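Subject: Re: docking follow-up (L45E5XJ5)

Dear J.,

Thanks for your patience while I sorted out the input files. As discussed at Tuesday's group meeting, I've set up the holo structure prediction with L45E5XJ5 included as the bound ligand rather than trying to dock it afterwards. The sequence and the ligand SMILES I used are pasted below, so you can double-check that they match what you have on your end before we go further.
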Amino acid sequence: MQYSYTFKPTRNINMQIRIGNGYDIHRLVVGRRLILGGVLLEHPEGLGLDGHSDADVLVHAIMDALLGALGLGDIGKFFPPDNPQWKNADSLVLLENIEKLISEKNWKIVNVDSVIIAERPKLKNHIDLMRNNIAKRLRIEIDFVGIKATTNERLGPEGREEGISSHAVVLLEKE
Ligand SMILES: Nc1ccn([C@@H]2O[C@H](COP(=O)(O)O)[C@@H](O)[C@H]2O)c(=O)n1
Ligand SMILES: C[C@@]1(CO)OP(=O)(O)OP(=O)(O)OC[C@H]1O
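The structure tokens for the complex came back this morning:
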């Protein structure tokens, strides 16, 4: 059996692609808002996410994935948590800034995929609004933004409702 493979490019071989991966988790506490993908949600126990910014773990994971794809570090480097400027910051505005940085470097966002790990509240009816918020800030079509939700089957910090986490991957291209 022959295992060698000859690559026959059918499109621009100067195209570069990059993949990025991001993760974030924030604690669930009383007295804070619960914002995911820019959507204000209601937790059955009135809990929200603690953080210096609005603690939107989904948007934070996506920003880290975008920065990671270009080897630019993480969001803390661009928006330091000890800088009062980012106190209660709207993470969608921070996302707009990251998109600007990427487009200035002539990279295009191909797609984003992500998952939110939250025991409660049920997120499925809010997913399309989150996708729309993110697609708008990234200046891509909604079809290129994937967001899923899963419980952690009551396991670990998310399962005990100590926090909510999110993972994201992105693909970038440049001609
Ligand atoms: N916070 C959540 C968690 C899950 N969902 C939806 O429920 C489905 C089943 O979740 P499991 O963790 O039991 O696999 C999941 O696929 C989501 O559609 C949700 O809306 N909100
Ligand atoms: C965006 C920032 C700004 O303080 O948000 P935080 O709420 O501190 O969240 P975290 O994910 O811990 O760190 C990222 C920070 O840069």
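A couple of observations from a first look. Helices lie at 57-69, 75-78, 91-104, 127-138, 156-159. The radius of gyration is 18 Å.

Let me know if you'd like me to rerun anything.

Best regards,
T.
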